[in-house]
Amino acid sequence: ATDASHVNGVVTKVGTGAFTFPVGDNTSYRPITMSSPSSATDVFTAQYIHADPKPTYPQSSRDITLNNVSKYEYWMLNRVNGSSNVTVNLSWNINSGSITSMGQLHVAGWSTAQSKWKDLGNSATTGNTGAGTATSGGPVTIFGAFTLASLTANNVLPIDLLYFKCNKINASLVDIDW
User: Distances from the Cα of 99 to the Cαs of 58, 120, 121, 129, in angstroms?
Assistant: First the structure.
């Protein structure tokens, strides 16, 4: 799979092997990977959505450990059949926001029961600040929407700017407030 060759839609996986879903949008390959399920009859589906998860999954509703949650993209990973829990690995690139502290990136999953993004940890990162992956801290027990989140403001995942004001103080000084 590449930016020029990937599935723009839902991919289904059946069986026990670990799997990288070759998903993306029309122009970008944005894979999601899962570890091996324990049963040969387990069925999972995945899709990449290049859009703000809000209003269905609002970023303001999140675990206290998460400073921010991506407003640019998310993946749907659903367990259609079976009971296996798997680790989840999400990808990023320059279109995912400004990544400056890879160790502060975490996988976040939407908990329908709690109506909030859950901090699913980060057991490993690969790549560099321009492109790479982050893996959940362990097997996940919730399925549905997943996205990248950050523990600090160092990783500026796309956010909504509520206001921006500039006031000229003098010829060499400007007061900026946002």
Answer: 21, 18, 16, 5
Task: Render pLDDT for 20-45 as a digit per residue (tens, 0 to 9).
Answer: 999 999 889 999 999 999 999 999 99
Instruction: Find all residues with CB under 8 Å of 92, minimum gap 6, and list them.
Output: 99, 105, 127, 131, 132, 133, 134, 148
Largest distance between two CA atoms of the chain: 71
Amino acid identity for residue 115 in this structure? S
Q: Give residues with Cβ within 8 angstroms of 94, minimum separation 6.
A: 130, 131
At 60 the three-state DSSP class reads coil
Whether the bond between 31 and the residue before it is cis, its omega within 30 degrees of 0, is no
Phi/psi region, residue 32 (left: phi>0; alpha: psi -120 to 50; beta: rest), is: beta
122 touches 135 (CB < 8 A): yes
pLDDT in tens, 112-167: 999 999 999 999 999 998 999 999 999 999 999 999 999 988 776 544 445 567 77
Q: What pTM was computed for the model?
A: 0.86
Nearest to 105 by CA among 127, 76, 135: 135
